[in-house]
């Protein structure tokens, strides 16, 4: 859908008359009306105040690539190739994967969006993606040692996300193997890695990170598990999303620069300290199989260490879900 020019005018939450909007934007009242309808199609509530004009109740915290760049630390900024801010996209991960087809250097390409129409999590699950309410972030990188070099990467990404939130005084946050970000057992966000290239050689990776920031109860009713958002965690003191994006990139970009050389090992102890299921009785589902045991953390490759009656067995990622045993 084309980017509307009306949205930034209404993002302040104030009342603007139709004539004022037409004059400032240099368009007709009819064109203003058409753009108002387009905002409704994006799922944005626009209130018509009789005799006064239009407003977006509560306003909108819109993303801006320049503001993100301005808030980055110099070391991170040097690793950033481009920030693309889209109004609406099927999936930021899918968009970045499409951009990698041309063979250009993927390192440091970032895509974020106000809304996803087909956001997804692991195992094809839908990721609920309301307009201008959450973080939908995808970041591309490449590795020369194939898929084996990525062992534990999704876990390290989770640790980096928690570091960024702690830097902004948002927490307490924990992690659940292999890719969930939790607050007191409720899901705050998640990580999704997707790859292209040669699994045994040069490989491109898209790191998808989703965080719930300010989501209404009505929107969240579509989520099939317990969830929370940063507004609830912070008591409504969540920083602007551009600030939050910059804090995340300040942690993620240096991680990716060093990961192919260092691997997951330097991140293991920190991940274990954040483990929401440490020493808990769990049920692990892998395809048609189900295993019961005690979660004993992870090894240097990011595998879950599941203690069973026959001993400790490492379990790697893939189509695996993990739930506390009742």
What class would the helix/strand composition place it in? alpha+beta
Rg, nearest Å: 21 Å
Strand content: 25-35%
Instruction: Kindly report how far apart the N and C termini lie.
Output: 46 Å
Strand order in the largest sheet: 3-4-5-9-8-7-6
Helix content: 25-40%
Uncertain runs: none
Q: Note the overall shape.
A: globular
Written as H for each helix and E for each strand, in order along the chain, the element string is: HHHEEHHEHEEHEEEEHHHHEEEEE
Question: How can the largest sheet be summarized?
Answer: 7 strands, mixed
**Overall pLDDT confidence:** 90
List the total number of helices: 11
Oligomer: single chain
Count the E strands: 14
What does the secondary structure layout of this molecule look like, with pairings?
Layout: H1 7-10, H2 18-25, H3 29-41, E1 47-49, E2 53-55, H4 65-70, H5 74-77, E3 82-89, H6 92-99, E4 109-116, E5 134-143, H7 153-167, E6 174-176, E7 180-183, E8 186-197, E9 203-212, H8 217-220, H9 230-234, H10 241-262, H11 265-273, E10 281-286, E11 289-298, E12 304-308, E13 311-315, E14 320-324
Parallel strand pairs: 3-4
Antiparallel strand pairs: 1-2, 4-5, 5-9, 6-7, 7-8, 8-9, 10-11, 10-14, 11-12, 12-13
């Amino acid at each position: 859908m084309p980017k509307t020019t009306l949205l930034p005018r209404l993002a302040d939450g104030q009342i603007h008359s139709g004539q004022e909007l037409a004059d400032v934007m240099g368009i007709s009242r009819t064109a203003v009306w058409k753009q108002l309808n387009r905002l409704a199609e994006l799922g944005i509530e626009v209130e018509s105040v009789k005799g006064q004009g239009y407003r977006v109740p509560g306003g909108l915290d819109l993303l801006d690539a320049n503001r993100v760049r301005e808030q980055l630390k110099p070391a991170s900024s040097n690793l950033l190739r481009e920030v693309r801010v889209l109004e609406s996209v099927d999936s930021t991960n899918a968009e970045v994967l499409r951009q990698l087809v041309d063979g250009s250097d993927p390192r440091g390409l970032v895509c974020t969006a106000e809304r996803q129409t087909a956001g997804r999590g692991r195992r094809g699950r839908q990721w609920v993606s309301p307009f201008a309410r959450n973080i939908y972030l995808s970041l591309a990188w490449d590795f020369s040692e194939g898929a084996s070099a990525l062992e534990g990467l999704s876990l390290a990404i989770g640790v980096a996300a928690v570091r960024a939130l702690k830097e902004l005084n948002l927490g307490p946050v924990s992690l659940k193997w292999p890719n969930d970000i939790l607050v007191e057992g409720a899901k705050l966000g998640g990580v999704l890695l997707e790859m292209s290239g040669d699994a045994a050689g040069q490989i491109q990776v898209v790191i998808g990170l989703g965080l719930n920031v300010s989501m209404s109860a009505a929107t969240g009713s579509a989520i099939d598990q317990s969830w929370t958002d940063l507004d609830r965690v912070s008591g409504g003191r969540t920083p602007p999303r551009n600030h939050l994006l910059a804090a995340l990139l300040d942690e993620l970009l240096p991680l990716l620069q060093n990961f192919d050389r260092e691997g997951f090992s330097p991140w293991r102890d920190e991940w274990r300290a954040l483990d929401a299921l440490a020493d808990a009785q769990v049920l692990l589902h892998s395809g048609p199989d189900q295993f019961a045991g005690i979660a004993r953390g992870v090894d240097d490759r990011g595998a879950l260490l599941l203690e069973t009656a026959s001993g400790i067995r490492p379990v790697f990622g893939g189509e695996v879900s993990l739930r506390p045993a009742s």
